[in-house]
Amino acid sequence: MLIKALAVSDQIDPRIHSSTLRERMPDVSIVFGCGDLPARYLEFLSDALNKPVYFVLGNHLEEVTRRGERGKLHEPMGCIDLGGRVLRDQSSGMILAGLPGSPRYRDGEEQQYTELQIWWMLTKMTPKLLWFRVHHGRALDILITHAPPRDVNDRDDPPHRGFKVLQRFLRKYQPVYHLHGHVHLYDRSIPFAVDYHNTRVINVYPYQVLEIELGSDGRVIRPAALSTK
Q1: Which residues contact 14 (CB under 8 A, 6 or more apart)?
Q2: Can you give the CATH number for the domain in which 70 is found?
Q3: What residues contact 127, with CB distance under 8 A and at least 6 apart?
Q4: What pTM was estimated for this model as a whole?
């Protein structure tokens, strides 16, 4: 079975934030938000497409809004925060996990993390990953993060360096896809996707529509390797 997923990050794109979205993308089955997107944008996608919307927080905390007299923080309504979690999408059977934020490059920022903090977040996810491996034959199908792995789709400047620990995580659990944002791609000659061992790492900025092949149990089928030429 082939399904389509809409992945978005970092910027409200007028081609997506449009009253005609449902007519233009009627076959999208699931939405992934890879960080730094206003709550109203994710809520729009949930309402317009009427499909599950999974997201992680970016390093600018755009996804939360203050509501009510006391200004309490709220995450986007109708959407599912994947940050630090592993779960199975009920409609497709895909196993999903997510990590928020970016590497720390400035003190006092809530959604910037050290390598140790991300390692600990991943460690707490390990029991669920192993449970899925035992009961479903694989630990993870798709990883959603804001920041990329170190030396994979990242940049040399401190704000846009990736996490080293994500390299080890991808090698160990081998999700079929790793979707991220954070690194803005303005030059379309730069590849947005690369194969890292058995995982296709995709920078979705500002959006990508992915065709995902599923097995009968919801397992994501690995795509053919990208050409290195």
Answers
A1: none
A2: 3.60.21.10
A3: none
A4: 0.94
